[in-house]
Design brief:
- Strands 2-4-3-6-7 form a five-stranded mixed beta sheet. A two-stranded antiparallel sheet has the order 1-5.
- Strand 3, helix 1 and strand 4 form a beta-alpha-beta unit.
- The protein has a domain of 145 residues: Glutaredoxin (3-Layer(aba) Sandwich).
- By secondary structure, the chain is of the alpha+beta class.
Length: 208
Amino acid sequence: MANSRRQFIGAAGIAATGLLAGCLGNEPAEVDEDALLEVPVTGDPDAEVTVTVFEDFGCGACGYFKTQIFPAVHERYIESERIRFEHRDFPIPASGDWSYPVASAARSVQAQEGNEAFFEFTSGVYQHQSNYSYDILEQLGDEVGADGSEVRTDAEEVAFEDGLDADRAHGENEGVESTPWIVVDGEQVDNSELPVLSAIDDALAEHE
């Protein structure tokens, strides 16, 4: 974790298209390379264009991105395997109660059932952002084919905390300042729909 940072704005007070931002300090973050988690990837892992999104499951703007913008990204570019889409964890934490537990639940799903189950789970879990509970995490885990009781336990015990902290430190060193932090073909873009889709279109055109 960075040694100095401001208090971050709570997710409940974020406008749907706003950023959850804060000062992450100027010192390079120390990354535990051994603890880094496998990067969840969907689309074409070998695509020339990579879209990376740093997310906090307690962040309202991340919820907006995943429920309102990601479906268009999925339909236009992921289903047709035109891009490599990466999830990166960046628990600010926006929610002291849920940022780490939900991320741990998602990583439990990934560990059990792989990347596609991870993305199915994370798309579903944001639908419940206003009423997260361990019961919901267990239920969604079962629905995507994982052992829901194990998902619940991993969430309650924050089993992937060390890995999530390592991922966050990695994000700080990559210049992440807020969530969702969206990088298209190496360039950070605004987190509203038009800039995201336009940036992907432009990147694809450059590689044609």
